[in-house]
Amino acid sequence: MHHFQYKGNELFAEEVPVREIVAKVGSPVYVYSHATLERHYRAFDDAFAGVPHTICYSVKANSTMAVLKTFINLGGGVDIVSGGELYRALKAGADPQKVVYSGVGKKDDEIEYALNSNILMFNVESEQELDRINQIATRMGKKAGIAIRVNPDVDPQTHPYITTGLKNAKFGITIERAIEEYKRAKGMAGIEILGIDCHIGSQLTKVNPFVDSIIKLKKVIGILKEAGISLKYFDIGGGLGITYNNEEPPLPSDYGKEIISATKDLGMHLVFEPGRNIVGNAGVLVAKCLYTKQRDEKNFIMIDAGMNDLARPALYGSFHGVQPVVNDQDGLVMADIVGPICESGDFLVKDREVPMFRQGDLMAFMSAGAYGFAMSSTYNSRPRVAEVMVKGNSFEVVRERETVEDLIKGERVPSFL
After folding, report:
1. How many Å apart are CA 113 and CA 135, to the nearest integer?
2. If you ran DSSP here, which 8-state letter would residue 326 be given?
3. Does the chain have fewer CB atoms within 10 Å around its N or its C terminus?
4. Residue 372 and residue 348 in contact, taking contact as beta carbons nearer than 8 Å
5. 288-303 burial string, b = 16+ CB within 10 Å, else e?
6. What's the pLDDT tens digit per position in 137-154?
């Protein structure tokens, strides 16, 4: 359920006509519904109300500070993968003791920044990373809380580019190696072992892969306990999918029942890293039709947003529904909706029946709240778009549209030219 609905023939974001947002802010523009963000967070949080848990929102899905602040205000923590994401989260008011730091390529300065910020724990992705965190923490006279990211070799049955839990993935450590690394970590002066972590992929539409991973990791937890290593936190990662087209992912409540049942005998504090599941359907990208063109029975609708604004269709062949902002088109047409980028892969819709948009018509690309603006770029020297958050009958710009001056900020022509 989201709060982008028609009233008559006009698309609204909560109680605000989308057309009014564009009239004030321009297009393209990302529009987020505060009510949807809050509703989806609470649905996930409520699913685990009966057990100790922390929801650490996955910042990479949408790192806009207004979105982060929404979840932080609801008691959420954050899952980060860079020093920049930590900076954003702390600026938005995140509790450092609700921060988990994932990612395979943590740099020395990022590790130091996280230690000085007193985060809860690092999710360690490799043997060398464990050594490096220990060295840095020891030098700083600190103890780094860690969990080891265990790769359970479970097929999440999702797109291969967002599969992270198979044994050939770059993420995590195999079960056998992880047990040895825990034993090594036990003797490290700069390390405090706090938990165990896994994350098998993104946009999962079944609960079984999660449960299969838990079953495998429970065996690891048992072996470690026998070795005198007790763990407090079980970070189950994120990955629960959303409906883009005809997917039918489980409800958070059903997911919660399965996870609680699978972990009930452990007595551990559960950590979750949802991203897409709580922001995906809370945002849309609004764009304007610039031109239409028919060539050899092929229809093209050229718009003012491109693959630099919403990369997922070009990157993954992903589906985003498209709806007219004012629903007064004359029927449907089979068409590609394409952007102004000089790439053949610059499309947002490919060979699909869509409304017969005319020049000047506005359209909303649905389910664009996750990996939308966060993955956008200035390719072709196109300034990044504005972002707006709606609450009830009001809205505010939460990120100003970039200018052409912003594009060259920090650049210099060398003195020898």
Report:
1. 14
2. B
3. C
4. no
5. bbeebeeeeeebebbb
6. 999 999 999 999 998 877
Could you tell me if 107 and 83 are in contact, meaning their C-beta atoms sit under 8 angstroms apart?
A: yes
Would you say 291 and 243 are in contact if contact means Cβ atoms under 8 Å apart? Answer: no
Phi, psi of 392 (to 5 degrees): 65, -120
Spatial separation of the C-alpha atoms in residues 272 and 241, rounded to whole Å: 14
Question: pLDDT for 173-209, tens place per residue?
Answer: 999 999 999 999 999 999 999 999 998 887 888 888 8
Q: Is 134 in a helix, a strand, or coil? A: helix
The type of residue at 369 is G
d(CA 108, CA 299): 51
pLDDT tens-digit map of 81-125: 999 999 999 999 999 999 999 999 999 999 999 999 999 999 999
Instruction: List, for residues 50-72, the tens digit of each pLDDT value.
Output: 899 999 999 999 999 999 999 99
d(CA 345, CA 153): 32
Q: Are strands 53-58 and 77-80 parallel, antiparallel or unpaired?
A: parallel
Which residue numbers are catalytic? 342
Residue that the structure tokens 């009014």 belong to: 20
Encoded tokens for 171: 């993420």
- Separation CA 214–CA 414 (nearest Å): 55
Range 180-196 burial, b when 16+ CB lie within 10 A, else e:
ebbeebeebebbebbbb
DSSP strands (E only) in 261-361: 269-272, 283-295, 298-303, 322-324, 332-338, 347-355
Pick from 278, 358, 291: nearest CA to 325: 358
pLDDT score, position 12? 98
Give which of 48, 79, 32 is closest to 274, Cα–Cα: 79
Amino acid at 277: N
All domains of the chain in start order, with CATH: 4-32+280-407 (2.40.37.10), 34-277 (3.20.20.10)
Comparing C-alpha atoms, which of 162, 374, 121, 164 is closest to residue 271? 121
Distance CA 279, CA 200 (A): 19
Question: Is there a contact between 385 and 29 (Cβ–Cβ < 8 Å)?
Answer: yes
